[in-house]
Amino acid sequence: MKFSQFLIRRLLYSILVLLGLSILIFTIARILPGDPARLALGPFAPEEQVEHLRHKMGMDKPLPLQYWNYIRGLFYGDLGLSFVTRRNVALDITHYLPATVELITMAIFWVFVIGVPLGVLSARYKDGWLDNTSRVIAFVGVSVPPFVVGLIGQLVFSYVLGILPTTGRLALLTPTPPTITGLLLLDSLIAGNFGTFGDALKHILLPSFAVAMTGIGQITRITRAGMIDVLNKDYIEAARAFGIPDCYVTFKYVLKPSFIAPMTILGLSFASQLGNAFLVETVFAWPGIAKYGIRAILRKDFNAIMGVVLIIGLAFVMVNFIVDVLAGYIDPRIRIQEETIEE
Amino acid sequence: MKRFSILLVTLLVLLAGFGCVGQAAEQNILVMSVNQEFGTIDPARGSDYTELLAMYNIYSTLVFPDSAGVSQPKLAESWTASPDGLTYTFKLKKGVKFHDGSELTAEDVKFSMDRMLALRDGYSWLWSKIIKETTVEDSYTVTFHLSKPFGPFVSTLPLFSIVNKDTILAHKEPGEFGEFGDYGSHWLSVTETEDAGSGPYKLKAHDRGHKIVFERFPNYFEGWPHGDKSVDEVHIVLLHENATVKMMLRKGELSLVDHYRTYEDYQEMDSYPNAKAIAFDSSYIVAAKINTKIAPTDDIHIRRMLAWAFDYKMVTDVIRKGSPQARGVIASTIPGHNPRVFQYHYDLDKAREEMMLSKYYPNIPDVVITYPSGTEDRRKMALLLQESLTKIGVNLVIREEEWGRITELVTTVETTPNICITSQTPTYPDPDALLYAMYHSDAAGTWMSSEWLQNPIIDQLIDQERVTVDKEERMHIMNIIQQIIIEDCPDIFIDNMVVHNAMQNYVMGLTWRPIMSAWYYFHDLWFEK
User: Fold this and answer.
1) Model's pTM, two decimal places?
2) B257-260 contacts at long range (C-beta below 8 A, 24 or more positions apart)
3) 20 to 30 Å CA-CA from B11: which of A175, B77, B145, B525?
4) Domain containing residue A196: CATH number
5) CATH fold group of domain B60-166
6) Which chain B residues touch A96 with a CB distance below 8 Å?
7) Which positions in chain A touch B445 (Cβ < 8 Å)?
């Protein structure tokens, strides 16, 4: 299949998926218990004031019409008003999303630089002390909840050793760089403010590592398993027999073909953490979209729930697409196989 | 390996060298924790505890309650009420400045009330059926014309903040309010560094979901009696996790901890060498609200049985140690509390006697009790009551529910559980705030009124006290209401919550005021370092 055809097909599938997701979440959000207008105004507000807010938020219209108005608004970037903040959910999302994106990007970085090499070394020195140690690290990473890792990290590095901050994205008196992307690390570099960059880096270390622990455990084991499988192939033995350096064999001929599964996991992990990182965000007072989403559910803030779920859905769709493209790039057999089937 | 070493060294240099920022000149910076986000800082829209906290510090009000809940002049120099209670005229202090330097006048007061009523949000319901018109007599005199007498009117005014008319209109956007556009509501919902207030603090920064920062307004009209010791900046940080809060207080990163942590947390924080915990007798009452319209709690004898069967001492001595048992629906810190109303105590014999008088005896149907999920102390209270009732052969079914679910259940009589354990505090420092919201038939259908009392005598008495202007006469009527409530027993009044705060030893001046968040008035505070 040509790449353009692949792109169009994936785009159409994505739209269908997001449409289905929007209908599902729209319905579920409205059958959750609680009256959001009453929750927003409190118990003392008279019924007519509650009715007024319901009317203002369009809740008195038939459900299909509410849904249609919502979808129409999406095309103008209007995600509706939040019951809690009384402002457009799109504005709220542009504020909260970058914080979580930055956090999980950093977490994926840790997973990549720690998990993958650990998996490679475990496969290379299979059943040795390094393999056994990485096995323990992996099990701990998968078993211990991220927020527990976060709390222990705070206790050790922040309280006992005092070398890392406890909470937040920046120290109290650190000036916030001009907002360009909302990613503090990037924005501070763009502004040439290296002091703020260093402070932001210090603040993101602990929470990103807490989020990364589970992924490190998973990627280590998956990389190891994939590599052991490839190491037993004839062409590897042939490569070694031809005198190709061990390092080259390991990274080009072994790791590359076995990296499809870890890459897929990394991609899915990125998208899922947009919603799942809320406990770590809570522990570290990280103003991210995961925490915003939980607050929206608890306060039955319809539009905010829809906005967050659609963003996470979009992230999954995009990540899946990128992973598929990268898979074809890393393993040409996938591209050739697809082209052969098409013919 | 070489590349990795270079990367590691670079990282360490960045961390060590470039992380050292923000070493500002010596300032008194108060860092406070809260467990709830600031939804809005628009004083015409806010209604929860963090929004009120912002309101009281950024904006000013005509009156403000003291520790006893009595409204004291603030922006108002004085006020008078007409004998028929239909007009209230306020004389404003001269020379009060907004944060932009302009003077606060009667025009701003009128504009603020008109804006509040037009937006129909926040606490506008307090005045929407009461205020007919607001008029400006002169630059410093404003009159509220009421459509009917409203006894607690002045007590409600701490919830009415004055905004800068010129600033609001300078930021207005197209909207439904004619020449006033949207009344600046969009601007106030998005601004992160500006406000329209005259309060002791200005908005400096608002990082939503993380923190809000106030900075001292040097020209605040009440001055700064503590001089250089006053708080220069307030950083209010959103922290849900109690372990994190304790750690930060111990490290000195937090100056003041909010009142939503557990009793054990405050005990622990009090033991830190650098910190202390203080307690206030609050205006919060914890009550088990009884549905008086469904079986078996529609029978007064069953309700009295429940009141006699509750072990209050276990609550005041163990579960919520230090909180005194509640005496009636009005806390002792609110003017109008009747200290002579009858107070139940734990007595299973009396509970049994009441049970035997019930029309349902000997086959008492199951009683269903619910409480909001995540409230450990209320779960324990439910278990306490269950244990007691088991001893006299009554089955109590415990159901933990999400708060949203509870607010939905209580909208009809049939779905409201027999008992619901909640806490309540008056919106304004007057018994009317609770009596009306809990017991008047017009207020039925909310979690505050899950008793479904619908007693015409109570309705009549409440209506009467609301239109009575004479203070003593009002108090007399409200005393009678409190006594009737005790006799009818629509609630088990459990305890008068003690509110705790923890803070660094050098933080001084936190002063209790009996309405939500009014004690977080940072102008009171100073540092003794």
Assistant:
1) 0.84
2) B257/B32, B257/B33, B257/B501, B257/B502, B257/B503, B258/B32, B258/B33, B258/B34, B258/B35, B258/B501, B259/B499, B259/B500, B259/B501, B260/B34, B260/B35, B260/B36
3) A175
4) 1.10.3720.10
5) Dipeptide-binding Protein; domain 1 (3.90.76)
6) 208-209
7) 47
